[in-house]
Amino acid sequence: AWFSKSSLLGKALPHHFIESMHACKMLTARWLSSLLALFHLAAAASSSTCSSELNKAKSPNLLQKHVTDALPQKEHGLSNAVDSTDAMPSLLLRPSLQSGQPEEVTFAISVKKWYGVDFAGGTFDVDAVITLQWFDARATRLLPANSTSTSLATDKARAQLWLPDIAFTTAAHNAYEKISSSVLIASNGTVTKVERAYVTLKQGYQTADFPFDSQDVSMMLASTTYMRDELELVPVTDDSMWGAKPEIFDNSVWDLVNSSMKAIIDDDNMLRKSRGVLTLRVRREHTTYMASIFIPSVMLLAMTWTSSWLPLGPPFAMPRIAMNAFGLLCQVSVSAMANGLVPATGKTSWLTSYLELCIELQFSVMLLSVMIISIEQIKDISMDASRLNNVIIMMFPVTTAINILCLDAGGKHLSRCVAALTMVGYMAYLYLAEKPQKTG
Prior knowledge:
Number of helices: 11
Largest sheet: 7 strands, mixed
Radius of gyration: 49 Å
Shape: elongated
Number of strands: 11
Strand content: 25-35%
Helix content: 40-55%
């Protein structure tokens, strides 16, 4: 305006310059107007916020009023459901708790795979399926709408309904590997739990007839929580649900003879349990030990016997003694290997007694061979050493067979008595065969 009013400058400056200045003036005015408008809006918003806070401070029970307005709906709608739930017993308690009757749980144990027996360790391994079934009408509340049954994972089911807590009581430490587990709830209130697991079970074995033995291996179930006055196990009536099939033993040294399943009462002072037992009677195939024990032991006996076939001359004295000594030491090694197959239960097995008999017979022959060589070399004795050697050649197979038959028929003590009598018989023959020298 100052430029436009100045006559001197107005005449001196170009006309378009003056128009540009007017345009800048108009833009500046608009910018200042917009800025003032923003300041007014901010002030209005701040005032509104302060008023809202002041109203809340003046009305502290506003939220309480909304909640109070909603209370009648809860009282007429949800409160009845809550009261009815509280009146019912918890699903986590056993169904017959109020009546005082024990829960009846039907059980079945089925063996899917047989992994063999650790005879020395006192265990056996199986892949087993445990089926448990009981009645709980309360469990039907967990069914979805318009559904006749539902299946839950056992871990989820444990948090929603009662489970009997049944497990193998003879499982080895940290030897239970669960493969699958589920709980099926039916609309009629029947609850079925099916669990499959790989498990190692402890078992005591009878060693007297090893390796011609048959064993009873047992899988025992019981509740880990409840006594028999609270829970009772009952075997399933369907035979197809329990036991083992003979074909699962095809790749094993054991054959299935028979199987049985029953429930037993086990009372031991305050520990009173209802237990379910599946027993498998299995028979060992002794042919496994023919190549590893019996054939080597027989060959060592024959080696000891054939040492007597060598001549009695001085060049053959050392080979005779060496064959007897090597045969005896090898038999001791076979016996040590066989003892490692038998549990350390303090009971002597048939195999151990047999190998002990072989060692005793070989030692007797070695002792007699030394005596015969000594008789042959001593000139002052008129005894015929070759004739005594021939007697051993003829009698050793006979006495060995008699001793083994006595071991099989009468056991360890009878066989040892016969072995001792055999040695006494050889000594008696040596004494009677000696002829005193003629004097004078």
